[in-house]
Amino acid sequence: MKRTHLNGAGLTGAGPGIGHNSGQDFNGYTGRLHQWRRARKDLLGPTLPLPIIRMRIKRAAALGLDYGTYASVRATTGRDIVALLFSSNALGMIRAAEIEAARAAKLALVEAARGALMHAPLSPDAVAPLDWAARAPRFTDNWTEMRATLRRSVTDRGLPADAVLIVGETAFEASWCAALRAAGYISGDRYFGATS
Fold this sequence. Notes:
Elements: E1 5-6, E2 12-13, H1 29-44, H2 50-63, H3 67-77, E3 83-87, H4 101-108, E4 113-118, E5 132-135, H5 143-155, E6 164-168, H6 171-180, E7 184-187, H7 188-193
Parallel strand pairs: 3-4, 3-6, 4-5, 6-7
Antiparallel strand pairs: 1-2
Helix pairs in contact: 2-3
């Protein structure tokens, strides 16, 4: 049996025809992202100019990242990284509220906002050289609770979630990236072992 519907003119007929957008909003986020990528490609061409690559290499070093990681995040999100969000595990704060000396020295040189999510029983107080700290989601939190905790820790500080790179150590902490819709996730070993 063929389905029919009443269209705006009061006529019956088959469903939407060729070229109909089926009610999708092409002016929404996906449409704007497509338009941005197309305009960028038209402006820059297939390869980036050398001055832009040099500028991005300097920015990667200022964030304490290797160029490949920075370029990957930049290509995925289309924006710069404005903050690094560390788990207390990635900072080596397992039993004490002190950052390992070598990691603290690297963090002190970072030219971006630096935050941390502290696992219980650590206190969610920022220690130097961090700019802020908050309570990490609990292992027993459901997805909604975890997302709310992460969003509060970032958006309350006026930071766009998709410009925040998460640095963690466990699979649970890697799931924060999807819950927050962050720019990306890397392990603490990779970050602190990266050449800057």
